[in-house]
Write a structure and sequence with these properties.
Elements lengths: L1 H17 L3 E5 L5 H7 L8 E6 L3 H8 L14 H15 L3 E8 L13 E7 L4 E6 L5 H21 L1
Parallel strand pairs: 1-2, 1-3
Antiparallel strand pairs: 3-4, 4-5
């Protein structure tokens, strides 16, 4: 967690300096991204909210995305990660949306992705989607790697 908070401190400094805000949707990280951002003193200046979107019901209830809203793509994919990031940005009227969706392990998910697969996205003044494959089935290590990668993706966009 210490590594994640270290990255979050850099993100927070950028957001505070720019007077910008963020909202987060995460799945297989289980709230680690949000917890890292909230561990930084002064988080209320930039963190507007977050959701752990771990199931179809959570997607419908928390994100207001119907099954029809994701026709043509599936969870744990780059298009789905982008949709989540954009939806959070819109719903919270934040400058940035950040999302993560994947398969932490120890087994893969029902969509055929192996453990260690995650897609993350940033939506905002600059946007990017990426996929990470750790090759590991260590659930906790994957959760931490996914969260660190998502936070670093956001940091790169903020520093660009």
């Amino acid at each position: 967690m210490k590594e994640l908070v270290g990255i979050a401190e850099k993100v927070a400094a950028q957001l505070i300096a720019r007077k910008q805000t963020i909202a987060v949707a995460e799945s297989s990280t289980g709230g680690l991204i949000s917890a890292s951002l909230l561990a930084v003193p002064g988080a209320s200046a930039y963190f507007l909210g977050g959701a752990v979107v771990y199931t179809r019901d959570a997607r419908r209830m928390l994100m207001d995305i119907s099954d029809d809203g994701i026709k043509g793509f599936r969870s744990s994919s780059a298009p789905y990660a982008q949709l989540l990031a954009e939806q959070m940005r819109t719903r919270f009227n934040s400058d940035w949306g950040l999302s993560e969706t994947g398969a932490a392990g120890p087994t893969g998910n029902r969509y055929g992705d192996a453990a260690g697969h995650s897609c993350m996205a940033v939506a905002g003044p600059a946007s990017e989607v990426m996929t990470l494959e750790t090759g590991s089935n260590d659930r906790l290590a994957n959760m931490q790697a996914f969260a660190a990668t998502a936070l670093n993706l956001l940091l790169r966009k903020l520093e660009a």
